[in-house]
Specification:
It is built from 19 helices and 4 strands. The chain has 437 residues and is mostly helical. The longest helix has 23 residues, at 336-358. The strands form 2 sheets. Strands 1-2 form a two-stranded antiparallel sheet. The protein has a two-stranded parallel sheet with strand order 3-4. A hairpin with a 2-residue loop joins strand 1 and strand 2. It is 65% helix and 2% strand. The protein has 3 domains: 1-46 and 326-437, Serine Threonine Protein Phosphatase 5, Tetratricopeptide repeat, CATH 1.25.40.10; 52-208, Serine Threonine Protein Phosphatase 5, Tetratricopeptide repeat; 224-324. Helix 14 (313-323) packs across helix 15 and helix 16 (361-374) runs antiparallel to helix 17 (378-395). Mean pLDDT is 90; it is low at 1-19 and 24-37. The two termini are 32 Å apart.
């Protein structure tokens, strides 16, 4: 609604805003990006934070197999250190990605060469196995099984068979890497294998490292209702993981993932994540993690995502502010564009509330300026214009009134039918005509 009242004033500084309406409270509408560059959205340059890119380049560009094996061996030797199993899982996951069709062929050639040159090491077999798993899912696509074209199933199962062969070889060469056993859980899931087979892989992985992230995370996925598990099984296991979170905070997030899964597929479209019986638990999981790992920026993206989805916009905004103009892969955000859009929305909501509810205009300016910087929208420019106008009146600063004119003009330019912005712009210009600039 656009129905808020602000006093009429009689002079340029005494003349404040005429009776003004509040813009839509849902946030800026989505606009098409002006640029498709990965690091640049709407003129905002996001610095990519990627702690795995060096090793991807070492493998696929430089073919420095020895350096990568040495690095992974070092991680395996520190597996008991909290957070290392997550780091190792993420590295294997990134190294095993197929990329586009051109990259797929080239990367497979590199992996084949690596397996030939370092056949006594389990690492290339594990990475190639993970590659075959990722390739299988690319072939299958993301549709439900009943909607998946029949012609893709033979290739899907062929690739899973290749993955199983490589992963079993990796486990045979070095049973001390839990990731080979963990990746086999995903193979078992794709092959619709009985739960006993999955549990066998899970036991082998956790026998190596009882708090292994990959083993717990991939078992969780196997137990989700979408893959033949049940909600009861999923939550029972997730709470077992939560009980281990004091020793390994990463495992606490399995319960967050379970709640997110329930939220996503809830037939009544309830806010499962934000429910009063769930959100305090989610907050405590993140608080425990950041108490131990305050600088893990990737997890800030997760927190912003879950808070925004739960409609806890103040919490989401706190995380967006910490993240700033940074971007990274391997988070729940599907794209930089979506992240930027939700960031702008959270900033707008805060500024909107400060203008129209709390009437703290000077503080609102920061949030609304940031919102239109991320994603220009008529409503955000309108609220920003009102904030400039009222602050300019309170502080007797003509410069802020000129900014108000500019912002209201931008709102009208973006949305010519925005009647409130046009009305306020006309009133401000009328006052300028009467009393001078």
């Amino acid at each position: 609604m656009r129905v808020h009242s602000i006093l009429l004033l009689s002079l340029l500084f005494a003349h404040g805003i005429s009776e003004a309406g509040s813009p839509r409270e849902g946030g800026p509408e989505r606009a098409e990006p002006s640029s498709r560059e990965f690091q640049n959205i709407h003129g905002v340059a996001y610095q990519v934070v990627d702690d795995q890119k060096e090793w991807i380049n070492r493998l696929y560009s430089e073919r420095d197999f020895g350096a990568l094996e040495k690095h992974i061996t070092g991680l395996l030797n520190r597996l008991a250190h909290d957070g290392t199993s997550y780091e190792l899982y993420l590295l294997y996951n990134r190294l095993g990605r197929v990329g586009n069709k051109v990259a797929l062929r080239r990367r497979l050639e590199v992996l084949d060469d690596w397996c030939r040159q370092s056949s006594a090491s389990h690492i290339p077999w594990l990475v190639r196995g993970a590659f075959h798993v990722d390739h299988a899912w690319h072939v299958r696509g993301g549709a439900w099984a009943k909607d998946t074209p029949k012609h893709v199933w033979p290739e899907f199962h062929r690739l899973l068979g290749l993955a199983q062969t490589d992963l079993e070889k990796a486990a045979e060469i070095d049973p001390g890497d839990p990731n080979a056993h963990a990746e086999l859980i995903t193979v078992a899931k794709g092959q619709s294998s009985p739960r006993s087979r999955m549990e066998s892989y899970f036991r082998k992985g956790t026998a190596v490292h009882p708090l292994d992230y990959a083993s717990h995370f991939l078992k969780f996925h196997y137990l989700t209702p979408n893959w033949g598990g049940t909600k009861a099984d999923m939550f029972r296991f997730a709470r077992e993981c939560l009980a281990k979170a004091d020793r390994s905070p990463y495992l606490g997030f399995i319960l967050v993932y379970a709640l997110d899964e329930d939220h996503k597929y809830d037939e009544q479209h309830r806010n499962i994540l934000g429910a009063e019986e769930n959100w305090p638990t989610i907050e405590s999981i993140y608080a425990r993690f950041f108490k131990k790992f305050p600088d893990r920026v990737r997890r800030r993206f997760f927190y912003a995502y879950h808070a925004f989805k739960a409609k806890k916009y103040e919490v989401a905004l706190q995380q967006f502010e910490i993240i700033g103009d940074r971007w990274t892969e391997d988070t729940p955000w599907r794209s930089l564009e979506k992240f930027n859009e939700c960031r702008a929305s959270a900033l707008y909501r805060k500024g909107h509330h400060l203008v129209w509810v709390q009437k703290v205009y000077d503080e609102a300016i920061h949030y609304l300026e940031e919102s239109v910087r991320c994603l220009p929208s008529a409503d955000a420019f309108y609220s920003l214009g009102i904030a400039y106008w009222q602050t300019g009146h309170e502080q007797r600063k003509v410069g802020l009134l000129l900014k108000a004119e500019e912002s209201l003009g931008s709102a009208v330019q973006l949305e010519p039918g925005h009647t409130e912005a046009r009305r306020q712009l006309n009133e401000l210009r009328r006052q300028f005509d009467l009393y001078g600039r």
